[in-house]
Design a protein that fits this description.
globular, alpha/beta
Amino acid sequence: MDHSRRQICLGAAYGIGALLSGAVISAQGQAKAVAKERVIKIQAKKFVYTPNQIVLKKGEPVVLEFTSVDFVHGFKIPDMNIRADLPPGRVTQVRLTPDKAGEYDFLCDNFCGSGHEEMSGKITVTG
């Protein structure tokens, strides 16, 4: 094998190795990130979130995974400055890691009918 062909083969081998290494690192990093988050499924429908009482631990990474069955509801935690639209037929994820213990109210902020004012809940963060 002449020198130039050997260079091309070595370059291709290094490139493939680098791609495979990156993929493994990416896959491992992603797996770790996903494994650490607790997923809490929440359903939104007129005029209730189910569940509407959620207990979290301070510093715990959490994914709130919403499904809306009937309307584009809103999700808002005013004291955490978190807000999301919840379109029906889609899963909406809200990631949070509470950094302070306490009680945090959440509510629907898209008017969804005459019972809209009752659509709320509470997140309790323990220390």
